[in-house]
């Protein structure tokens, strides 16, 4: 019984990041450009990854909205906290195909 409880706790304590469903992602590269502010971000499945999704862009976001998103992304990146995103794609993800536009970004439940 003890082994079952331990294995259940271990398997359930790890969240699986996935650029396939845009859940539990780590923040990779952040693109900020003079005159525009936050332009895009690359998401990672694992903190140690050197590459991840294609760039996802903040098209149509106001300057204030981009500033708020940038603050959240920098905080998540600095702390190693995961984020969930939704894009304007029909499946609300699509970051592996590239050229997606972010609709929302929020901190995940678990770091």
Question: Can you walk me through this structure?
Answer:
This protein is an alpha+beta fold and 111 residues long. The protein is built from 2 helices and 5 strands. It has helices at 2-12, 63-79; strands at residues 26-33, 37-44, 56-57, 83-87, 100-107. The longest helix has 17 residues, at 63-79.
Span from first to last CA? 29 Å
Side-by-side strand order of the widest sheet: 1-2-3-5-4
Task: Give the rounded overall mean pLDDT.
Answer: 87
Strand content: 25-35%
Structural class: alpha+beta
Could you give a short account of the major beta sheet? 5 strands, mixed
Number of helices, where a helix is a run of at least 4 consecutive DSSP H or I residues: 2
Poorly predicted tracts of residues = 1-13
- Strand segment count: 5
Secondary structure: elements and pairs:
Layout: H1 2-12, E1 26-33, E2 37-44, E3 56-57, H2 63-79, E4 83-87, E5 100-107
Parallel strand pairs: 3-5
Antiparallel strand pairs: 1-2, 2-3, 4-5
Provide keyphrases for this structure.
single chain, 111 residues, alpha+beta, 5-stranded mixed beta sheet
